[in-house]
Amino acid sequence: MALTPELHSFYCDLHVHIGRTSAGNAVKISGSRDLTFANIAREAAERKGMELIGIIDSHSPGVMQDIRDLLMSGEMAEADGGGVTYRGTTILLGTEIEIREPDRKECHVLAFMPDLAAMEDFSAWMSRHMRNVNLSSQRLYAPSRVLQEEICGRGGLLIPAHIFTPHKGLYGCSAERMAELFDLEQIAAVELGLSADSAMAGYISELDRYSFLTNSDAHSLGKIGREYNVLELAAPSFGEFRLALERREGRRVGANFGLNPRLGKYHRSYCAGCGSIIDEAAATSERCPYCGSAKLVQGVFDRILHIADREQPLVPDHRPPYHYQVPLEFIPGLGKAKMNALLAAFGTEMNILHRAGEAELAAVTGPELAAQIVLARSGELALTSGGGGTYGKVSR
Ligand SMILES: [Zn+2]
Ligand SMILES: [Zn+2]
């Protein structure tokens, strides 16, 4: 009988975009210029303390050239079990794809491939069904179930992205049930997105079986780790990631760390006429209670209640805790200088959030800010609701 290897907790953020290739070619136009494959790896390993990072846009031919160069130079190596290693961090090669089925709105899915060869092969396939395979999150002109076969047939993982967002989320705007678009047997997990948590997703029974991921969807280096996961793995690799999503051999998602949904940009419904966020009591009406406009955009929470097939949310026993955490960047008074002092003292953001005691923090930032950081990591900072594309705020 094979020995069960010892498992450890790893910090993981599986949705980080590329802005440019190292040659300066645009990949995600709205992404920041310094968001290259090498810089993301460095930021994740050295500043954030993320041990497994999913780099979305690894399908872009210019990015794959960067990866080949980094492997050739010896700065990075292919990991046993799949992925690319850089210092203590393993990078999973992923891509975000826009699909649009007839008579539906478009939605985004993530695909992860075990290694560079599989990603090259997959990218070549996609290039025949896309206008410009160099760019991020492009529309794929192929049926969703064909895409699913192409991903799974290469040993890849299909994970619907930010599933509840009104903008390109599967449940947010494309479908009321995932089964309308995909074979549920070949969905590896789902990504919750910034305005929902595990309890909210528990209103939809077809999600019970899936592991949930909470990722940053970062478009800049600073946003890496805005949301993240703890995965229990033997080592950070693609193969271990797959086992964790399937909850096999002890591997699992051990915790989700996300914004309180109330801080998310799309939590509540809002009025496109006057910009007001519609509060809970008035959210059921057809018109804006403030200006009378009928141009209401449904927020995540309201959409979930609309498509729910349960009266009360159910959280299955396998579901790990979902910890509300306010990102360090939201904390009033924690500017660049204080942040750099904290990093100099504790190494990485994960150390600041998880390993430093309040007294140790206070020695660097003073007691007031240290107390705020402690409240932020336990999700206890007071917040106002977000909606209509504006984040909620820390109210002091
Ligand atoms: Zn997306
Ligand atoms: Zn994205």
Walk me through this protein's architecture.
- The protein has two domains: 8-262, Metal-dependent hydrolases (TIM Barrel, Alpha-Beta Barrel); 330-383, Orthogonal Bundle (DNA polymerase, domain 1).
- It is of the alpha/beta class and 396 residues long.
- It is built from twelve helices and 15 strands.
- The strands form three sheets. Strands 1, 2, 3, 4, 5, 6, 7, 8, 11, 12 and 15 form an eleven-stranded mixed β-sheet that branches. Strands 9-10 form a two-stranded parallel sheet. A two-stranded antiparallel ribbon has the order 13-14.
- Bound molecules: zinc ion (2 copies).
- The site of one zinc ion has 5 residues, from loops.
Q: Helix and strand layout, with pairings?
A:
Layout: E1 8-16, H1 37-48, E2 52-56, H2 61-72, E3 77-78, E4 84-86, E5 89-99, E6 107-113, H3 116-127, E7 139-140, H4 144-153, E8 157-160, H5 170-174, E9 190-191, H6 198-201, E10 212-213, E11 228-233, H7 238-246, E12 252-258, E13 270-271, E14 296-297, H8 300-307, E15 322-324, H9 336-346, H10 349-354, H11 358-365, H12 367-377
Parallel strand pairs: 1-2, 2-5, 5-7, 9-10, 12-15
Antiparallel strand pairs: 1-11, 3-4, 4-5, 5-6, 6-8, 11-12, 13-14
How would you concisely characterize the structure shown here?
The protein is of the alpha/beta class. The chain has two domains: 8-262, Alpha-Beta Barrel (TIM Barrel); 330-383, DNA polymerase, domain 1, CATH 1.10.150. It is 27% helix and 17% strand.
